[in-house]
Each structure stands twice: as structure tokens, then as C-alpha cells.
Amino acid sequence: MIIQQQQQQLLLLLLLLLLLLLLLLLLLLLLLLLLLLLLLLLLLLLLLLLLLLLLLLLILRLLLLLLLLLLLLLLLLLLLLLLLLLLLLLLLLLLLLLLLLLLLLLQLLLLLLLLLLLLLLLLLLLLLLLLLLLLLLLLLLLLLLLLLLLLLLLLLLLLLLLLLLLLLLLLLLLLLLLLLLLLLLLLLLLQPLQLLLLLLLLLLLLLLLLLLLLLLLLLLLLLLLLLLLLLLLLLLLLLLLLLLLLLLLLLLLLLLLLQLLPLLLLLLLLLLLLLLLLLLLLLLLLLLLILIIIIITLATCVIMLAFNPFGLAAGSGSVSGSSGTASSGNLAVRNRIGQDPNLMLLFSILQLTH
Questions:
Q1: What is one GO cellular-component annotation here (predicted)?
Q2: Which residues of the chain have pLDDT under 50?
């Protein structure tokens, strides 16, 4: 009977070790996903910097550009520091796991107590580092007030441009309605052959309007699909968390039956590791979403300012009502585009795609 009990305990230990190995494999996979997301974040940050440079070269002066570049560099340094801190936490937890494995082999309780004390000291040090980071963030907030003011000005400009676009769309609709009324009047006055031609023109105009509506609907559908994908990713992450919690509950029940405290500590540390990795994944996904939205908005701003459809004068920001001032503003923009090869390339691409 004693030999059978020992064999059962050995089998249970082997099962627990296999579960630990599976959890370690999951941790490695999550680390690989984190690395891929970090690479995507770096690429998006590079695109964001390029768009900001284009936008600032089109609107602001060199001194303001230098200030904004310094602020962006400080923000990037803060993000890198936070990522390094999280990676250090993960490495420390891995070291603790290894040491607990050694404790399982050696059964040294004193070393376990020492490790717990070291863990408390490390947590205190991390708290101090977080306090220092908070102080740095307060200093950066004072510096970012200027950037916020500039962003508010840019938002006001974007709102004005959107209002002008809406007014232009309303004017185009009114012009189309007037043209339709004129064509209907001509239909009442003209001969049958010309009536057919005018009917064909009306059909073509209606087809163009339907195509524009279809394009708008497709854009709305794409935005909805992106939101649905993000919601599905969040649901999958929540399901993974629930599955991990269920596995941990089962393992805790087994540990209570076997009364293996060191394995319980190991599982708790693995749970902390998994939670940290999942938090990192969620943060990186949120950063990716925010960066994609910012890049899309900045790209639209750059294209609108480079194309300059409203006759804005370069550097003045005022819209004149007469046709002469609008044409002079367009000539100034074309001269400025011709002096810069990058803007010339962008303008040629816009002409091809428009």
C-alpha cells in the first residue's frame, strides 16, 4: 500500500511538472507575440514621425518644429523606459521560478524566506522608480502645454475644413438639383430624339450619385469591421484569461490534495507572469489602435494641406473671397510645391489618384 501511494504521488508530480512545462511554453509564445507587436509599434511610430514632420513643415516654423521633435523624443524615451521596466519584471519572475525549482529539489525553506525578502526589496525599488517616472511625467506635462495649444489650433483648422467640405457638398447637391430641373424643362421643349439623349444624361448623373453613396457606405462598413475585429480580440483575450483561471483552480485543488506548497508558489508566480504578459498585450493593442487613428488623421491633414483645394495662401492661413486672391494663393502653393521635391512627388501622386 505504501508503495502504491508513493507511485500515485510520483504520477501526480509528473502531471504537475507537465502542466508547468505547458505554461512555460505559453509564456514563450506570449513573449514572441510581444516582440512582434513591439516591431509593429516601432514601424507605426516611424510613420507617425514622418507624418508629423510633413504636417509641421507645411504649417509651422523651424523653432516650433524643433520643440515638437524634442517632446516626441522625450515621449519615446518614456515609453522605452516603461517597456524596459516591464521586461525587467518578467526576467525577475523567471529567476524566481528557477530558484523555486531549485528549492523543490533541495527543500530549503530558509532560502525561500530570503527570496521573499528579496522580492519585497525589489518591489520597493520598483515603486521608487515609478515615483521618479511620475515626477518626470509631471515635468513633461508642463512642456506639453504648448503642444496641446498647437494641437487645439490644428483641430480648429480641421473643423473649419470639414465645415467647408460640408458646405461644398451641399452646394454641389443644390447644383445637381438645379441641373435636373433645367433638364426636365428642356425635356418638355425639345424633340423626341433629343429627349432620349437627355434621358441618358439623367441616368448617368443618377449612376454617379449612386456610386458616391456606395463608396460612403463601403467606408462605413470598413470602420465597423475594424471595430468588430477589435471587440473579437478583446473577447478572445478574456476567454483565455478565464481558461487560465480554471486551470489554476484545478491545479490548486490538486495541490491541496497533495499538500505541496512549493508547487503552489510556482503556480502563483506563473499566474503573475501570464497576467503581466496579457496586460502588455492589451496595452500594445491599445497603442496600435491609437497610433493607427493618429496616422490616418495626420495623413488626411497632410494630403489636404498639400493639395490645398480651398485656395489657402502658404503661411497665411486666410481665405479670401474673390477669385483673384484664390488664384494667387494657388500659384503660391504651386511655387512652393515646385521648390520642394518631396511635396512635388506627393502632389503628382494626388493628381494621378484624384
A1: membrane
A2: 308-327, 329, 354
* Count of C-beta atoms within a 10 Å radius of residue 354: 7
Scanning the chain, the segments in alpha helix (DSSP H) are 2-59, 62-106, 109-189, 192-258, 261-307, 323-339, 341-353
What's the confidence (pLDDT) of residue 352?
Answer: 52
Query: According to the model, what pLDDT value does residue 56 have?
Result: 63
Contact yes or no for 273/20 (Cβ under 8 A): no
CA distance 122 to 272: 15
Write down the pLDDT at residue 71: 63
Question: How many angstroms from the chain centroid is the CA of residue 312?
Answer: 32
Cell 525589489 found at:
122
Q: Give the integer Cα–Cα distance in Å for 8 and 6.
A: 5
Question: Under a CB-based contact definition with an 8 Å cutoff, are residues 96 and 266 in contact?
Answer: no
Under 8 Å between Cβ of 194 and 183: no
Which residue, chain included where needed, has cell 502588455? Answer: 280
* Residue 13 neighbours by CB under 8 Å, 6+ apart: 258, 260
In the block, cell 495626420 appears at 298
Residue 337 near residue 343, CB atoms below 8 Å: yes
